[in-house]
Structure formats: structure tokens, C-alpha cells
Amino acid sequence: MEDMASPPRFPSRVSVYEMAPRDGLQNENAQVATHSKVRLVEALVDAGITRIEVGSFVSPKWVPQMADADEVCRMIERRPGVTYAGLCPNARGLERAIAAKVDEIAVFVSASETHNLKNVNKTTAQTLKTFEPVIGPAVERGLRVRAYVSTMWGCPYEGEVDPKQGLKLAKHLLGEGCYQVSLGDTIGVGTPLQTQRILELFAAEVPIEQIALHLHDTRGTALANVLMGLQMGVTTFDASVAGLGGCPYAPGAAGNLATEDLVYTLHGMGIETGIDLQKLWQAGQVAEAIVGRELPGKVHRAGVRSLAR
Ligand code: HMG
Ligand code: MG
């Protein structure tokens, strides 16, 4: 008898972590007005987004676009059930995050030394030391702490990256109190079997609920990697509305996977997100209006559904 492979199993619900106000905007050269950032956050939350990075508490000398993160946090109208988060590189960042009353912070380190050095001016070992007065004290104050391990699929300076280096960093960060590690394809080079190998390596040592995928769509492979992630039990995916974004210290990094493309695909597969896709599309229009140029998301460009006349 022919041996039929069992069909892939997918989760019934997925959590979408919105990145546009932080990863999306941080790469914009022209300063976006604070009230426009607030408008974007509120449009995304109106669409049903419940986890959102609203900005970063990094050095304004390094990323001037994020200098007003504190003000953005003060101005947004908070909704119950929504997690408002900020990226945080050091103890000074934590102080600002606490003053800004975010619910969650995210720390970040790269799997490759050169990207880490360019991004935060420190080795990965020094970066982990910098997080000692951040992660523990944040958790003690009731903040949840998430972590990114960047350049997992490849580094703009070093090329191939050994995923075992990323696993070591991830296990350390989880051990320090982070509740989830989001694996970053910072420059969007990943392909599905590579994703499978990385996730197999992680899943052998880390509960899959503690792993998220943060995929940039530079080469159009992000959704294929999402599908592999879903098949392997990942249920949190980072995305940025309309595909806005990039990393200022990763040349060639394009936007994150577009949130509309992710949600369109998930809903089409019968996977719930709690997000209203039509309203999300409208939030994408807000993103485009505030940066003043066309954004690349596929659903953003084509519309949620179009009928030939
Ligand atoms: P440094 O120059 O080595 O350190 O920067 P420093 O301590 O000498 O600080 C320089 C100046 O910044 C000082 O000011 C500090 O006070 C100030 P001065 O004395 O010269 O007037 N400063 C701060 N100000 C406000 N808030 C702070 C803060 N810290 C220092 N928190 C540092 C080291 C880590 C601060 C810097 O390199 C930095 O801010 N880097 C952040 C770069 C960044 O934001 N990159 C993009 C985010 S990561 C990413 O996009 C990847 C991700 O999306 C996942 C993926 O895609 O893979 C997460
Ligand atoms: Mg990113």
C-alpha cells in the first residue's frame, strides 16, 4: 500500500506582533512627526493589533528617528488588552521605558559579532553584560521582557552565520528572564529548509512557545518561512504594516514581512488572528501617508480583494 505522508498541522490561532512604529519607522531619514506616529499606533490598534512596538529607547544620536519614543508613549490613548512595547538597549533605556509606562521591553543582540558591533558598539558578550541591569530589574517591576536574536539567517558583514551561536544567546536570555526570543532574519536572506534547520536546532532545547519569527521580506521569502514556522509549531510572528522598515545598521535590509500579507495568508488558512484585515489595510494607508512614499506590501498594493469590472 502506498505510504501517504500525513498532512501538515497548523495552529488554530496566531499572535501577530506589530513592528511598524519601531522597526518600520526607524530607518526613515526624514523625521516623522510625533503626532503622525501616534496616529499610526492608534490605527493599528483600531484594526485589532494587540501587541505593538511603539518605538525604541535607544540613543537619539544613533537613531534620531526614535528620539521622541517617550513622547509617543505619553500621547497614545492606551486600550485595555493591548501590549505597548519599546526596544531597549541598556539601563538608560529601561529608565525611559519605565517612565513612559510601557508594558513590555525588548532587548536585542545579534548572532554575528560584526553586526552586533555595528548596531550597538559592543561585542555580544559585552551586550549580554549590559542586559544584567535591564532584564532582571524590568521583570521585578512587572514588565515583560522579550528578546531578539538578529542575523540568524545571515549577516550583512559576515555572510553565513552559525545558528548555534544564536541558540547560545537565546538560551542565556531566556535564562535571565525573557519570556520569548524572536529570531531575526534581519536582511531577509532566509529560505524554508534553512528555517526548518534553525527551528529544529532551537526546538530541541527551547519550548516552541518561547520562539517567535521576525522576518524581513527583502527577497520575497518571508511568507515561505512563515509557512515552515507554522508547520513547526511557531505561533508568534512579527510583521510591519505595508512592509515598512529596515535596520539602519544592516545595509540592504528592507521592510519586515507586511502585516497585511501575513494576516491575509493566515485567515485564508483558517488561522485566527483577531485582526480586521480591512481596517489593517486602512492602517497601511496611514503608514504610507505619513512617510510620503509608496510602500511595498503586496496586499497593501493590491487591496484585500479586488473584483474585475
Ligand atoms: P555608545 O555610543 O557605544 O554608548 O552607544 P554610550 O553609552 O557612550 O552612549 C552614547 C550617547 O548616547 C551618550 O550621550 C549616552 O548618554 C546616550 P552623550 O554622553 O554623548 O551625550 N545614550 C542614550 N540616550 C538615550 N537613551 C539611551 C541611551 N544610551 C546611551 N538608552 C548604544 C551604545 C547601545 C546606546 C547605541 O549603539 C544604540 O543606541 N544603538 C541602537 C541601534 C539601533 O537602534 N538599531 C536598530 C534596532 S535593532 C534592529 O532593528 C533589529 C531587530 O529589528 C531584529 C532584526 O531585524 O533582526 C530588533
Ligand atoms: Mg527587524
Strand arrangement across the biggest beta sheet? 1-2-3-4-5-6-7-8
CATH architecture: Alpha-Beta Barrel
Query: Cα-atom Rg, whole angstroms?
Result: 18 Å
**End-to-end separation:** 49 Å
What name does the CATH topology carry?
A: TIM Barrel
Count all strands and give the number.
Answer: 8
**Helix amount:** 40-55%
Quickly describe the structure.
By secondary structure, this protein is α/β, with parallel strands linked by helices. The chain contains 13 helices and 8 strands.
Give a written overview of the molecule.
Helix 2 packs antiparallel against helix 12, helix 9 packs parallel to helix 10 and helix 11 packs antiparallel against helix 12. An 8-stranded parallel barrel has the order 1-2-3-4-5-6-7-8, surrounded by 9 helices. The longest helix has 15 residues. It has a single domain, classed as Aldolase class I (TIM Barrel, Alpha-Beta Barrel). It is 40% helix and 14% strand. The model has no long low-confidence stretch (mean pLDDT 95). With 309 residues, it is of the alpha/beta class. The chain is globular. Helix 8 links the parallel strand 5 and strand 6. Bound molecules: 3-hydroxy-3-methylglutaryl-coenzyme A and magnesium ion. 3-hydroxy-3-methylglutaryl-coenzyme A (HMG) binds next to helix 4, helix 5 and strand 5.
